[in-house]
Amino acid sequence: MAATSFSLPTFPPFDVHADGNTGHRWKKWLGRFERLLVAMNITDKKQQRAMLLHFAGRAVDEIFDTLSDTGEAKDYDKAIEALNAYFIPHVNTAFEEYNFRQAKQNQSETLDAFHTRLRQLSQNCSFTDVDKEIKNQIIVGCSSQKLRRKALREDPTLKNLLDAGRAEETSQIQAQFVEKQESSQNINAIKTGALEKHNPSPRDMRKPQNQRHGSNYQRNFNKPHTSTCRNCGGGIYPHARD
């Protein structure tokens, strides 16, 4: 029987030395790897084990060599069990659930992002109904009082709660856009009025000066002058005509 040949795709190895939660990162990497096996239709256990150690990288391969009870070359499940025991430490469920209960929606965080964060936090908890726990935590920890009151009044499903939250966020964004446009238009109108007041139009400039400045100028123009004549030094200027 001829061997089946195929080219291996590019797939990032597992970074053993990266900072952060190693157990969580390993589970994420393993999940992506097993989806790769499905996509490539690799069902033979021996092939799966070989590809696991190949794609996991040299550091994981060297760690694997030090582990006991890893099974035979065709035992994929034993290999996974041994690596899980190495990378995933004992989980303190009570502490993980405490962290879950403390989660609050951040000021700049969307409801979908908060939901995703809660879903990640729930992975190490021992919840029997994860969706129910996430829904309850959204009600307690969401930043929208309107959404919280609606949820307490109607007791929606998690899906309906998320739909309502998305609709509220969208309406807020749209309202802010409209209000910003109206505010900008009002400011422009005020600026335009001020410019027209200080800069008369060409039509106004053609008017006589006394008409251009209004009644106050006319009253001042008609007042009797009391200046001293600069020619003769006396009398009220201008002199009355005979």
TrEMBL record:
Domain named Paraneoplastic antigen Ma-like C-terminal: residues: 25-138
Pfam families: PNMA
InterPro entries hit by this protein: PNMA_C (IPR048270)
Signal peptide limits: none
Regions of compositional bias (Basic and acidic residues) in chain numbering: 194-207
Biased composition (Polar residues): 211-230
Region (Disordered): 193-242
PANTHER family from the UniProt entry: ANK_REP_REGION DOMAIN-CONTAINING PROTEIN-RELATED, RETROTRANSPOSON GAG DOMAIN-CONTAINING PROTEIN
Protein name: Paraneoplastic antigen Ma-like C-terminal domain-containing protein
Species this protein is from: Paramuricea clavata
